[in-house]
Each structure stands twice: as structure tokens, then as C-alpha cells.
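Repro case for the chain-ordering regression, as requested:
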Amino acid sequence: MSFSTPHGSLAHSVERMRRAEGEVIEMGKNSQVSRRRLLRMAGGLGASVAGVAALAACGEAEPQIITKEVPVETTVIKEVPVEKIVRETEVREVPVDRIVTQEKVVTQQVEVPVERVVTQVVEREKVVEKVVEKVVTREVVKEVPAMRETVNVRWQEVWADAFQPTVEEKMIPGFEAQFPYINIVNERIEEAQMYEIYLTQIAGGDPPDVIQIQESRVPQFAARGGIIPLDAFIGKAGLNLADIFYAGEWPKGSWLGVQYTLPLDNTGAWYLFWWNKDTFEEVGLDPDTPPTTWTELEEMALKTTVREGGEITRHGMFVPEMIKGARTDASFKGWQFPAGGHMFTEDAKSVLFDDAIGQRNVSWQLDMVQKLNDGWDNIQGYMDAVGASRTAFYNGLLTMRVEGVWFLGVMRRDAPDINAGVTHMPYDDTNPNARPRSISDDGWSYGMPKGAQNLEEGWEWLRYLTAGEGNLAFMGNLKRPSSVPKYNDDPLYQSEPLWNDLKSVLPLVEASPITPVNPDIDQVLKDEMELMMAGKQSPEETLASMAGQTRELLDEFFASL
Amino acid sequence: MRAPRWTIGRREAVWGFVFISPWVLGFVVFSLGPTVAIIAWGFTEYDILQAPKFAGLENYVEIFTDDEKFLKSLANTAIYVGLLVPCQVVIGFLLAVLVNTKLPLASIFRAFYFLPTIMPLVVASIVWAWVLQPELGLLKFLLEDTMGIPTPRFMVDEYWSKPGIVILTVWSSIGVQMILFLAALQAVPPHLYEAAEIDGAGPLRKMLHVTIPLVSPTIFLVIIIGIINSFQVFTTAFVLTQGGPLDSTLFYVLYLWRKAFVSFEFGYASALATILFFIIMCLTALSFWVSRRLVHYEQPES
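-- result from build under test --
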């Protein structure tokens, strides 16, 4: 930046002065200069000295600029990418007569208290007629959102395969419009291999930025430092999770009070009760009144059971069957809460199910298999991995069953015309403390794995997928309830006749503590329940063995920390 | 002093090493390196997410003294191998004999029998799960519901679960064994059969005294490959039974996988893998020792 004087630039004045001095010296050497020339040179020298002296006197005091009518320029300030803060120079104009240009800066090296000028580009000349009296600088802090380098956020998930149009045409463009500097790279992986992939990527130092992860696995990763805490991001964004998500959803993404993931779906109602209304009507039951207690469940199951020639041709209910039949481990947990019991202490370090309620739960399930199904052998065939119990329900061979919220979408896909109802699990009416409860200890969520490279950008995408519009786009497409209550009121869902029934159950859902050895405990529960059903051990032995092995797993893990 | 001249043999050796170096490099990086790493991790406590900690023989002590599922899974796998490998040899050989005839459409049958081999095992597993499903499956419908013949409760009964998986595996892999046997059958010199016929041998004698001795190297190959592959059975059990019922299909590699990727006990899983490595190596060595007596290798006349 430079300034002009009435006599041209300062450098130019100094140069003229030097030249006059040189001429005087030269004249002394030659002694052949006329008097007129001598006087002219002396005059010039004197004027120059006076000019420089005047300038020097004015320089420190006031950034007053005396402008001659000289060609000046329009200055364009171009903002170049600096991190985040740019200081702008503001020109305050004091009306003197008339000011032609708004901001004028001419190349002259007068120091004024301007903090920093970003860039100047002189485009064309203009005439300044009057004086800008004062130049004032002021700091303006301003974020520069544009011109940031594009960041690729790697997103790995296991669901989007069937929903690519939603992901590619709606979710990713919707997000990138809000964050033009973020490019979402969607990497679909197989659900069956997801943890192998995550673990090897983390171990290899090349994890993605955002991963889809089951909440039943969050403490397992968190306790080993495999996933990044989100508390700092949540705090910075000012999110209050309790205001955004269902009360039974967001706590499942935490471990020891630290939040590691945010929920995608509402799998809160992991254990829901479904019944076939047509069968109810056929046997004289009110099709809109499902059983609410264990006593009613037994009565209705017996009433809807059909026996022909000593064989059961239609079953009322498979009490130990949970989730596609393959996970009998879930049957203990699933009935433990409507029985009025709990699984673990809040810190997930100690077993709570080793009590009279747990014993009642185990014994009742075995009793129901004997009474309703004439033994395990008659229903074991439905406990397979391909969902035979679902097929039986669709075909009217099974009247009531338990499966999570996702079953609504599955049922509509597989048997769209089935006349079914949904409600919460029946509770144990022999326990005065029991009540209708649905418990969730699993579900899908998003987090950022250890070693993720783009945390800020990854967080924005994670937030969009869970608390933002991406959640509605994705879950609405699936016709599965969102973890965000307000999205479940969206018109996207209104075409589903059972939607309001399903939605009414969701607020009843409570989150159950999840341990860092959750998958191992699930396996123990499954194995022991299966041994009991197969007649290899008594209900008492079953509960004792489940509790003992679970304690051992928990103690061993916490001792290793 | 003259520089030593490279002999032809030495030059060929150098070029030989140059040509096999890609394989050697791949073997070192993708096979030998991981094998050494797995053996080393077997002596550590390692959960993948944190650095391994040296644990000495702790994993091995626990495996051999305090792990019921190790023995259970090993026994399950041994029974499975014992059922599967003989089936693969016998059925593969008989199919090859059938399609080796000069009947019309023989080539179509060859293609037909080979077709299941190209189907992904996961898909085949799900299809067979519905065929063998004990309550709603196709087999039950055809046998029990239509003809009144009781059907085994494949996949859900602890005694029928392994045979169910064997049936599926034989169906999906038999094309490979058939092709191997077919190649061996077609390499049997016809003059040996002519000589046997002149000596009065019937079809059975020709099979026992000409065909089987001459294809015995292929039988041996199929057995070795069968043992190595079937000891590593995983996909079918993972998809169909997840180790059940009552752990009857908890095969060794499925258990190993659970330890590594479900329980995050990667050090322990590495020890299990090391044990499996030595078991397969010993069985293979045993097979080679036995083959000296039973396998007939044709020697060229000197």
C-alpha cells in the first residue's frame, strides 16, 4: 500500500533531491555553471528538502492524505482462502465536498494503522477530485465458508444396498447442498462381515470416517478405544439428545456416561407382540383385543391352537421364539422385562436377573412350550435361520409371535394382505410390580471409528443421518420408525394402517444397560435356554448356569481393564 | 585373469528364480507372513483394537485345559470330515464313471452335474435350508406329506444337523471331484482294458484291478483336498445353523471366528488357528505316508 503527495511519491521526491545534490557537486567540480542555473538548482533543492521535511513531520501524526488529481484506481479486494479469520479494512468517508471513489488507495509507502490488506488488484484509472480525510480500520471477524478444499467423508453402512435411490438421489445431495465442501463416499459392506471389516480397517490404520454399528456392540468397541467419543461434538453443536431422540434410544449409544454413537432407527421396541386378527375372529376372540397379560396370552394361545389326529396343525404361540427363531437368547431377555425384572445394573457391571423373577421367567417359558406346543420337538423346526416362523405366521399356521419393529416392513413385503395387529409384550400378572414394558438393548446407530481422518466433516454427516433430515429420508423409505419422534409423524408413514398402533408403543420403550461382553452373554443365554428346552437341564440349573457364566464374563472383562 | 564364465545351468537357475519370483513374493506376503503373524499372536492377549500383550502359553493352556467348546468343535469337525470326504470320493467317482460313457447327451450331464459348483455357497445354503426345512420344507412335503415317509429333522435335530450340511456340501462341490476323476478315467490306456478282457475279466474285475489302481493318485488327491477344505468348513454352518442346535454344528473355524470377531479375543483365536494348522499338516503327512502303500504311480520304463 502506498500514498501520494502533492508532489508525487515520496521516493520520487527523494530521488529529485539526490539529483539536485549531484548537480551541485558536479557544478563544484566543473566551476562552469551559470548563476541562473545555480539559483534554479538551489531553489529546487530547497523545495525538495522542505517537502521531505513537511512529509516527515506529518507522517507519524495523522493518516491524512492529501490527494492531487492523479490517476487512481478502483481497487478490488479479493478474499483469498485464509484459515477462518480475515481482517477487512473499512474505509470511512468523511464528506468533504464530493468524493468520487469509495475506497482509494494509491501506491505510496506511507504507513497507516491498517492491520492487513488481503490483496489488491488495480483495474483501471480514475480521477480523484477531493480528499478522503481519514482512513479508519476496524477488525471484522468473518467466517469464510466458501473456497474450502473438498473433503471426502467415507461412510460405511450395511443397509443402503436396497435403498440406493434414496441414498444417492435424496440423502447425499441434500447433505452436500448444505455442506458443499464435503463429498460423501458411500461404501456398502455386507452385514455378516461388518465387524471383520471394521476391525481390520482400524488395525490397518485405514478406517472410514463414519460407520454403521449395532448398539449392542458399542460398549465392546468403546471399552477398547475402538470408537471416538462424540460428547465434544454434541456439546459444540448444542444438541440435547433427550430433546431429539426417544428416551429409550439414545442412551444405548453410550458407555459409562460417554456418548459414542447416535441412533438411526427406533429398534427400541425390539420385542413387540404381533397377532393374526383373522384367526382371532375365527375362534371367537375380539380381533382388536390382544392379550395384555401372561394369563390372557395362555388362554388365547390355547384357544387358537388346532390339534388334528394328535398333531398340532396350528400353533397359538411359540413363547421362546424371538427374532426369526434363531435367537432364542433373546427369549430370556425379551420376557424378563415384562416379567418385572432387569438384566444388569445401570453400570452394566453386575447381574440382576439371578432372582425369583428370572426363575419365574425361565420356568414359565418351559411350561408354555409344554402346554401350548406339546413340547420343544414340535416347534424346534421353526427355530431356524431362514425364518420359518415368519412363514408360519403369514400362512396362518401360527397365530401370535414376538418380533421387533422391523417386522412391519418385512411383513408388508412378504405378506402384504395379512390382517395383523401389533402391541407391547404381555406382562406377568402374577407379579404386582410387572407392567407392559418393551425393552431395547440393541439397534442401529452411527459412530466414528478410532483413526477416522475427517472428524469435523464426519460428525456433520453423522448428525445429518441421525438427528437430521437424512434420518427421515432413510427410515421413511424403509417404513421403519425413526429414532426421532417428530419424524414418525411424517406423511411418509401415513399409508401404513398399523402405523399409529406401532407408534403408540414406542414411548413405552426403555433402554436396558448393555455390557462390553454383550455378544458373549447372548451366546450363553441362547445355549442355556436351548439346553433347557431340549430337556438337558432343569429351569433352576439353567438360570444358575446363565447367571454364573455371565458373572464370570463380566468379572473377567472388568478385571482386565 | 579371466572372469568366471556362467554355465548354462547357472544361467537357467537364475532365470528360473526370476520367473518364479512373483509367486514367491505373493507367497511370502500373503501366506507366509500372515502365518508367522498368526503363530506369534497365539502367544499374546490381543483384541485387535489395542496393541497385543505377550501372554506366553496362556492361550494354549486355556484351550487344552479349560475350553469345552474347543473339544466340542474339534469333534464336530472330525465327524463332519469323516462323513463328507468318503461321500465326495465315492459319489464323485461314480458320477465320473457315469458321464465317462459314450452315451448320447453325456456332455450335457457333465455340465448339469458341474452346475452347482458355480453357485455361491451362501445361495446354495439358503436354497437347501428350505428344501430340508423340517416343518415347511420341500423334502417333507414330498416324502412325509405326500407319501407318509417320515423325514429326518435336518438342521434342527442335533443328530441330523451334520448330515444335513454334508448333503448340501456334497451337492455343491461334487462337480469338482467328478471332473478330476473324469480326467483320470480318460487317461487310463485302453489297451489295459483290452488285455484284461482277453484274460476274461468282467466289468467288476476291470474296475477293481485296472481302473481303481490307475486312478488311485486322483483318489488320493481328492482325499487330501477334501480333508484340508472340510476341516475349514464355515459358511454353511454360519448361514444355516449358527453352530446349533445344541452346538452340534459348532465347527472349528466357526468357533475360531466367534472368538476373533464376536468376542474380540484375537490372540486366543490365533492360537486356535495355529492348532488347526498343525492338525491339518499332520493329517496330510499321514495321508502321504499311507499313500505309499495304496497309491499306484505308473513308472516310465527305463
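Ordering looks correct now. Residues 10-59 of chain A form one domain.
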